[in-house]
């Protein structure tokens, strides 16, 4: 019996060692996770393009009617338009053509402007991207400063909660109008409208970024307070580290995961928020181009913006998923163990 037990023990140890040796390294496990995430992102984009094509097919009215406008309508002109835009091909052929063109960044021509949609998007994407990046910077700075200075401080937290609730509850267009009234009309510090110079970006970025920062700061502060109660915080304090260094260098990293998740979800909606902000401040960008396209029933432009929005969501969610691995090493260990099982 002792020999049998010893044999079983040796066999079990050999299996464990073999299983341990077969585990992929950290780089391989991370690469596999990235590959799976990219494949799922491609699937989401394919679904977005497919839904865009279906939306065109289900849209009320006839595309030829939109293209003709007030022109004289004859069978010959209709046939020529259908042939030019590929509307006389079977639906499956149109779908495959649209799928291939979208993969190359070709979204067709605008019905109204008679220009390639990619040119329209490219000409308007710059101001919207600048507004989005500036608003994100405002949100992150606001969230980090407010969370780190008010966590576990009762009076400061009560004031911060009031400010955050006010910002979250205020409609963006109303906040923009208030900022315009105070900063532009009364104090005359910033321009009222337009896109000339960095100063024209300040008020739109504040209007779009402050409500986002108010939401993120609440989640970040709660996570920071939980992190400061962990045993590692007591250990760091024993090293004579200052309270500020404890919060910024150690606490924020442990508290960042929920905030990063929320930020990634909210940033995807900045493109939709830019539509309102660009209208309020008279800025060029995708927001105004989308409004004009919707009013004119210019479906290629509307669908291209919808696909671009899906791409933004996919990219941000992918980046957020990869940030998890950097913020929390335990996730990398879990990924390796999951691949080994």
CATH secondary-structure class of the largest domain? Mainly Alpha
- Largest β-sheet summary: none
Residues in helices, as a percent range: over 70%
The run of helices and strands is HHHHHHHHHHHHHHH
Shape: flat
Question: Based on the structure given, which CATH architecture of the largest domain is correct?
Answer: Orthogonal Bundle
Number of helices: 15
The poorly predicted ranges are: 1-24
CATH superfamily of the largest domain: MetI-like
Explained architecture:
80% of the residues lie in helices and 0% in strands. The protein folds into two domains: 102 residues, no CATH class; 172 residues, MetI-like (MetI-like fold, Orthogonal Bundle). The protein has 15 helices and no strands. The N terminus is likely disordered. The chain has 341 residues and is mostly helical. Helix 2 runs antiparallel to helix 14, helix 6 packs across helix 9 and helix 6 runs antiparallel to helix 11.
